[in-house]
Specification:
Length: 638
């Protein structure tokens, strides 16, 4: 306990060389207009803005009437500054394949592919889906979209065909970019087949572009499909950038909420770019000579912001790795760090807990002395895990930035600054300069323990939920009458005034850092012809943070083959959402605890599972079923 209270200061050398090492930056950040206005001068603008910010929640705008392009800022700007030969990516495949791309290589490929997209009729504002493994072409595709002003929708590689289909239809997607396969633990993931299933009977998609990567034999629809490499060869080598308005939509990224359907979070062009550019500089302390590696997939916001746009806009060098961290063995991560002399390493608590479980013998024989900064993202990190990361990976010599953000905030909002903050295991410190976060009670008054709110507009904030304005207003802005943004997280302020996250307060579950809506899983389960009703909850898991447990009521006719049904139910979740959302256990039950008005009392299910008293049952309708439920649960050890 004593150990956990201790705080950690970075060493003198780190502080001296840090991109930010003076607390004054927090003060300058208070005047947000001049602060963000000055920072925005780092970027290249085709036309400067008339006004920095129009604060008008929930519809605040930034850099009004400015003209800017993201691809230009990630590529052309660096090439014009003489960085054409600097390495943008070291790509490492699962089986030790390597590819190195300089900024010039990336620039040429993005230009060609942008022209290829144009040749398929894609223009500003059109929606393009990218569903690919972690290969350079995935990043080329994102940048090519931004070059011509097309709105990309990256869908995580593990998403099931129904989930993809729903997004494609909802966003009226015109073109899909995928690959003939991707590697995962020696197996090939059939991206193209999944896309074919997803697009079955979908009219809006006119073209599918396929990257040849795995040498997998794939079905090819001559009318609709084309090979990426054929298009690249045929394409012109220069594509002028589309001069985007600051507030033009940059991308949509679907994420889970508390209802059954994922929501399409969309971001603006200038504000998003500035947010990720600046926070990368501050929090990851990125320098010209650094080699950075984040294990995040581009299918999530971390991949968008802290693999693609934050790093490339800074002209940084990074490693991207396609495969699994345990393939071919548990040393893979450390082998990559040693091989590329990685300086900055960014991963999720669930990965760190897994490394801990595998044991230090997989780490000890590797030289990790290149590391100078470590990061954590996606879920709360337990203090003992933080300490292990600090001592065993960082050799007590690297600050850890426990970073907080959301798909909605685009850029990091709350995080230590490694050259300034005293680090405390488990605490995310305080809002970054130019941002403001508070812990509020129901009424919107500041308190020590309550709801985490973002109380001032900042450039990279989401601009809405695609085609669902009402949902945007209700989810984020209704709690405090449109005044403050509600994050959905619970938090408390500690003695030092730092923020600590306790977890989600809505029906969002975080499994291995992946965001999953319990209602989404319930919807998937009741698609089964024998299922009548489902309730999904989560309980603590040592490694994954949380695990999903489902309760399903079946029709009476289904009683003989229950074992298969459990398998079928899990499969349904996999097809509808993705493998990552599969329940760990599904209990088949006859009733669910309900209130007199028919609301399922999830608290009772959760308490029974964790063997806690079920608490107040005065509103419970079917009390007599509780002992039966208890027996069913007790029979199975989770
Ligand atoms: C939610 C947002 C994996 C992608 C990044 C997250 C949780 C995020 C932290 C942290 C505790 C965290 C919150 C947040 N979260 N960072 N450092 N400590 N919790 O993006 O998938 O949109 O999820 O992740 O609950 O609301 P996301």
């Amino acid at each position: 306990m004593e150990k956990q209270k201790k705080s950690f200061k970075p060493n003198k050398k780190f502080i001296k060389n840090a991109n930010v090492n003076s607390e004054d930056i927090y003060k300058t950040g208070l005047d947000k207009e001049s602060f963000w206005g000055n920072l925005a001068n780092d970027l290249f603008w085709h036309k400067k803005w008339d006004k920095v910010c129009e604060e008008n929640p929930p519809y605040s705008k930034w850099f009004l009437n400015g003209k800017i392009n993201v691809s230009y800022n990630c590529l052309d700007r660096h090439i014009k500054n003489g960085k054409q030969d600097k390495i943008a990516f070291y790509w490492e495949g699962e089986n030790n394949q390597e590819k190195i791309l300089t900024y010039n290589d990336l620039y040429l490929e993005v230009n060609r592919f942008a022209n290829a997209l144009k040749s398929k009729g894609i223009k500003k504002g059109d929606r393009v889906v990218i569903n690919m493994p972690m290969i350079p072409e995935a990043i080329v595709s994102m940048l090519a979209c931004t070059r011509i002003g097309a709105v990309h929708i990256v869908i995580f590689g593990g998403t099931g065909p129904i989930g993809i289909k729903e997004r494609v239809i909802h966003a009226e997607v015109k073109l899909v970019i995928t690959s003939d396969g991707g590697y995962r633990r020696g197996k090939i993931i059939p991206y193209k087949e999944i896309i074919d299933q997803a697009l079955d009977q979908v009219d809006c998609v006119k073209d599918v572009i396929v990257v040849k990567h795995s040498k997998n034999k794939i079905p090819f629809n001559e009318k609709r499909d084309s090979w990426y490499h054929d298009l690249i060869i045929d394409a012109k080598e220069f594509c002028p950038v589309e001069e985007m308005d600051s507030e033009d939509m940059l991308f949509i990224l679907y994420t889970s909420g508390s209802t059954g359907k994922p929501k399409g979070i969309f971001h603006s062009t200038a504000g998003y770019l500035l947010g990720v550019y600046q926070t990368t500089k501050w929090v990851f302390d990125i320098k010209d000579e650094d080699i950075y590696w984040s294990t995040a997939d581009i299918g999530w916001i971390t991949g968008h912001s802290y693999v693609v746009y934050g790093l490339l806009s800074n002209g940084a060098t990074q490693v991207i790795y396609e495969g699994a961290l345990d393939h071919p063995n548990y040393s893979r991560t450390w082998e990559i760090i040693e091989k590329y002399k990685v300086n900055i390493f960014y991963t999720a608590p669930t990965a760190i807990r897994t490394f801990m479980k595998w044991g230090n013998e997989w780490i000890d024989k590797y030289d990790l002395s290149s590391l100078r900064l470590l990061g954590s993202i996606g879920e709360p990190i337990n203090p003992d895990v933080w300490l292990w990361y600090y001592e065993i990976i960082g050799k007590s010599n690297c600050p850890i930035v426990d970073t907080w953000f959301q798909t909605e905030t685009g850029a990091l909002v709350i995080s230590p600054l490694p050259g300034i903050s005293a680090l405390k295991p488990g605490s995310i410190c305080k809002a970054l300069p130019g941002f403001e976060a508070k812990v509020l009670d129901e009424k919107g008054n500041e308190t020590n323990k309550g709801f985490l709110a973002l109380t001032k507009s900042f450039p990279s904030m989401l601009r809405g939920v695609y085609k669902e304005e009402k949902r945007y207003l209700e989810t984020y802005w209704s709690k405090w009458d449109g005044k403050y943004y509600y994050t959905g997280d619970g938090a408390y302020v500690d003695e030092e005034g730092n923020i600590n996250i306790t977890g989600r307060l809505d029906d969002v579950i975080k499994v291995s850092g992946h965001r999953i809506g319990s209602a989404e899983v319930e919807n998937a389960l009741v698609e089964h012809p024998h299922a009548v009703e489902a309730s999904v909850i989560s309980v603590h898991d040592e490694i994954k943070g949380e695990k999903i447990i489902a309760f399903v009521i079946l029709k009476e006719s289904a009683s003989d083959s229950n074992k298969d049904i459990e398998k079928e139910l899990k499969k349904l979740v996999e097809i509808s959402i993705g493998r990552y959302a599969r329940p760990t256990k599904i209990f088949l039950v006859d009733e669910l605890p309900k209130t007199k008005s028919g609301k399922i009392m999830r608290r009772i299910l959760r308490n029974l599972l964790i063997k806690q008293p079920i608490g107040d049952v005065s509103t419970l309708e079917n009390k007599s079923y509780i002992p039966i439920l208890k027996n069913i649960i007790e029979e199975i050890q989770l």
